[in-house]
RNA sequence: UGGGGCGUGGCCAAGUGGUAAGGCAACGGGCUUUGAACCCGUGGAUCGCAGGUUCGAAUCCUGCCGCCCCAGCCA
C-alpha cells in the first residue's frame, strides 16, 4: 500500500529510492540480516531485522539470512537454531536465501590470494602484542610491520602453509596493506586472516585459519548480490575498509548504510552481557521472561505483531545514544493484546467471600463475553456459587477517598453476576481479615439492578468450589536503574529482586484448565498473561506480560505522597 | 588534544531555506458491568550555545559546548 510505504519511510528508504532513480543497482534491492551465532537475538536486533526485511519487501526485493560465522570459538548450532526460530516467529521469511559466511570460505581464500598477488596483502609475523604496538594510538601514527614489504610470492607460500596448518595459533596473520598511519585505526593494515586451530560448527576441522569480519562481510555481501548492506552506527568507521576490499578485488560493490541501534530503559542490549546473566544463573535461561531477548519476549507473552509495532514506532535515526522508554513497549503490547486476547477471571491474592443468603448447594452459570472488542470471539460459561474469591486489594475496611470497591456496608457488582453488599468482616486470631460475609441481591442477576441504582465498582471473582489453583509469575523491569550500565553498582549485581514475584495459590476460573503453553489471556482488571512453556495440566503456570493501565494505582500513589 | 558521527518538548522522531508532523508519556473531561478499552480536549520546543549570510534559518557558514564510536589475531 502506497500510503503505508510513505508512512514507514525513513532515511534508508530514501537512499534506496535515490539509487532506484539513478539506476545504480538496476532497481534491485537485496538486503541481508547477518547475525553471528554466538547468542540469542534481542529487541535491538528486531529493529535491524525489520529494517532489512522491511526494506527489501517495500521495494520488491529480497532479504537473506546469513550467519556471520567466522569465529568458531564463540559460535554453535544452538544459536543458529534459536536465531532462525526467532526470526521466523517475528514473521519474516528468507525463503531459500539462507547462507553462512563459512559457505564462502573457499572463495574467500582465493580472493585473499588475489589480494596478495596484487600486492594488497601480506603475511605478517608480528605477535598480537606487537601488532598493537606497531598500530600506535588514535592520536599517534603507527609504524609499518617489518614484514610489510615481503614479496607476494613469499606471502603466497606462507599463506598456503598457514592453511595447511603448519603454524601455531597467533604466530602469523594475513594483513591488508593499506596505510599504517591513517587517522582511521581500521585502515592501519588490518588483520584479514588469523590462525585458529579450532573446530568450526559447520566446517569442522577443515580450516586452521579463519577470515576476519572486515574481509568476510563485504565479500559475502558481494557474492550474494546484496545491494544495500544495513548495519549499526559503530561500523561507520569500517565502511572505508568495506569499500577498500571490494574495490581492490573489483567485484560487485553493495552500499553500506548505518543506522542507530535501539536501546531500551531498565535492561541491557548486549548479547555478551545477556549471556553472562544466563551463564551465571541469575535468570532462567535465554528465554527468561524478564530478558529483552526475542525468546524472552515470546515467553513473556508478547505477540510478534506487538514487537514489530514497537520497533516501527521507535523509528529510524542516526542517533547512537537513543534510549526508548519502557512505556512504549508496554503500550504496543496492550494495544495488540487488547484486541486479540480472550478475557478470563482470575484472582491473584484471594480473599474468601461467603454469600450468606445464597442457597447452600446452588450453582449458577453466567455467560461472559470472551472479548468485548470482538463479538465473534463468543462467550463462555463461568460457574458461580455461595463461596467465592475476590482480590484482597478490592476490599478495604477503611476505604480511602475515591475508593469505590468493597468496604463494610458497601455494595459492588461481581462482574457478570450479582450486586453484593459486605455485611461482616471475619478475622483470625491475629486480627487479619480472612473472610467477608456478604449478601447478594437476587434481583440483580447478570449485574444490573432493576431499580436502576448504580454501583461504581465492578470486581472480578472466582467460584471457590470450581477454582483452579495456579502459579502466576509477576514480572517487572529486570533492573531498577533505567541505564543499568551507568548505575553505581556493577550491572552484574544490579538485578532487581522484585523483577520476579511468583505467586502460588492463585485462583482461576475453570475454563483456564484447557489453556496450552503460549496461550494468552487478559485476566480482567489485572493485565495480560501467557501460559509458560513449563506449565503442566496439574500445575498451571502463567506469566504476566504487562498490567492493564491502572488509573486507580496512580491516584492512590498520589494520595500516599500527600499523606 | 587524530579521525568518524550525533545534538528538535520527559522519551523516540518527522522536517534539509518559507515561518516546528506524529507516537509514547503527562494532565483534564466524556462513556463504561474491566478505575481497562474507546472518544474528546489541554499543556508544554527561544530546534545544544554564540555569532554570521538571507526579505526569511531547525535547515546554509563560522566558532564553541556536550554525547557516542575507533587503539581485538571479536562481530
**Helical amount among residues, as a percent range?**
25-40%
Strand content: 15-25%
Distance between the termini: 55 Å
The stretches of 5 or more residues where confidence is low (pLDDT under 50) are 1-7
Which properties best describe this structure?
563 residues; alpha/beta; 7-stranded mixed sheet; 27 strands; RNA-binding
Write a structural description.
The protein has about 575 residues and is of the alpha/beta class. It contains 14 helices and 27 strands. The strands form seven sheets. The chain has a seven-stranded mixed sheet with strand order 12-25-26-27-23-24-13. Strands 21-18-19-20-14-17-22 form a seven-stranded mixed sheet, with no helix packed on it. Strand 2, helix 4 and strand 3 (about 100) form a beta-alpha-beta unit. The longest helix is centred in the N-terminal third of the chain and has 16 residues, at about 45-60. The radius of gyration is 31 Å and the shape is elongated. Mean pLDDT is about 95; it is low at about 1-5. The chain binds one RNA strand of 75 nucleotides through helix 6, strand 6, helix 8, strand 11 and helix 13.
Amino acid at each position: 500500500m502506497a500510503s503505508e510505504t510513505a508512512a514507514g519511510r525513513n532515511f534508508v528508504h530514501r537512499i534506496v529510492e535515490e539509487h532506484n532513480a539513478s539506476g545504480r543497482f538496476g532497481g534491485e534491492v537485496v538486503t541481508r540480516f547477518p547475525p553471528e551465532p554466538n547468542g540469542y537475538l534481542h529487541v535491538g536486533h528486531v529493529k535491524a531485522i525489520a529494517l532489512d526485511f522491511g526494506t527489501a519487501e517495500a521495494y520488491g526485493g529480497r532479504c537473506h539470512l546469513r550467519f556471520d560465522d567466522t569465529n568458531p570459538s564463540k559460535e554453535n548450532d544452538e544459536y543458529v537454531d534459536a536465531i532462525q526460530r526467532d526470526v521466523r516467529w517475528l514473521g519474516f521469511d528468507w525463503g531459500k536465501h539462507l547462507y553462512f559466511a563459512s559457505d564462502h570460505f573457499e572463495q574467500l581464500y582465493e580472493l585473499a590470494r588475489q589480494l596478495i598477488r596484487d600486492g594488497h596483502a601480506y603475511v605478517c609475523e608480528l605477535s598480537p602484542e606487537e601488532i598493537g604496538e606497531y598500530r600506535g594510538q588514535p592520536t599517534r601514527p603507527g609504524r609499518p610491520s617489518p614484514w610489510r614489504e615481503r614479496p607476494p610470492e613469499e606471502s603466497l607460500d606462507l599463506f598456503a602453509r598457514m592453511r595447511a596448518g603448519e603454524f601455531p595459533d597467533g604466530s602469523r596473520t594475513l594483513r591488508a596493506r593499506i596505510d599504517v598511519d591513517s587517522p582511521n585505526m581500521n585502515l592501519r593494515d588490518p588483520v584479514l586472516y588469523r590462525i585458529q586451530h579450532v573446530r568450526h560448527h559447520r566446517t569442522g576441522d577443515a580450516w586452521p585459519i579463519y577470515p576476519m569480519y572486515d574481509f568476510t562481510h563485504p565479500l559475502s555481501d558481494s557474492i550474494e548480490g546484496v545491494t544495500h548492506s544495513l548495519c549499526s552506527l559503530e561500523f561507520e568507521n569500517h565502511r572505508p575498509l568495506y569499500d577498500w576490499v571490494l574495490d581492490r578485488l573489483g567485484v560487485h560493490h553493495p552500499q553500506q548504510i548505518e543506522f542507530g541501534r535501539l536501546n531500551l530503559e531498565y535492561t541491557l542490549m548486549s548479547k555478551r552481557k545477556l549471556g553472562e546473566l544466563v551463564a551465571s544463573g541469575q535468570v532462567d535461561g535465554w528465554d527468561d521472561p524478564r530478558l529483552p531477548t526475542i525468546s524472552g519476549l515470546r515467553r513473556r507473552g508478547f505477540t510478534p505483531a506487538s514487537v514489530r509495532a514497537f520497533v516501527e514506532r521507535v523509528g529510524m535515526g542516526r542517533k547512537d545514544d537513543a534510549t526508548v522508554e519502557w512505556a512504549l513497549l508496554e503500550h504496543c503490547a496492550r494495544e495488540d493484546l487488547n484486541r486479540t486476547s480472550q478475557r478470563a477471571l482470575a484472582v491473584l491474592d484471594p480473599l474468601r467471600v461467603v454469600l450468606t443468603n445464597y442457597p447452600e448447594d446452588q450453582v449458577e452459570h453466567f455467560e461472559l463475553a470472551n472479548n468485548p472488542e470482538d463479538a465473534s470471539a463468543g462467550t463462555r460459561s463461568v460457574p458461580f456459587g455461595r463461596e467465592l474469591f475476590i482480590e484482597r486489594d478490592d476490599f478495604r475496611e477503611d476505604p480511602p477517598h475515591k475508593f469505590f470497591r468493597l468496604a463494610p456496608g458497601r455494595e459492588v457488582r461481581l462482574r457478570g453476576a450479582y450486586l453484593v453488599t459486605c455485611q461482616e468482616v471475619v478475622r483470625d486470631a491475629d486480627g487479619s481479615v480472612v473472610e467477608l460475609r456478604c449478601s447478594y441481591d437476587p434481583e440483580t442477576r447478570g449485574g444490573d439492578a432493576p431499580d436502576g441504582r448504580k454501583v461504581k465498582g465492578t470486581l472480578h471473582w472466582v467460584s471457590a468450589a470450581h477454582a483452579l489453583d495456579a502459579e502466576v509469575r509477576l514480572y517487572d523491569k529486570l533492573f531498577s536503574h533505567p541505564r543499568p550500565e551507568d548505575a553505581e553498582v556493577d550491572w552484574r549485581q544490579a538485578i532487581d529482586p522484585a523483577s520476579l514475584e511468583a505467586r502460588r495459590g492463585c485462583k482461576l476460573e475453570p475454563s483456564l484448565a484447557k489453556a496450552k503453553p503460549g496461550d494468552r489471556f487478559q485476566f480482567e482488571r489485572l493485565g495480560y498473561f501467557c501460559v509458560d512453556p513449563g506449565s503442566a495440566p496439574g500445575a498451571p503456570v502463567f506469566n504476566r506480560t504487562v498490567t492493564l493501565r491502572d488509573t486507580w494505582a496512580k491516584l492512590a500513589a498520589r494520595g500516599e505522597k500527600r499523606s
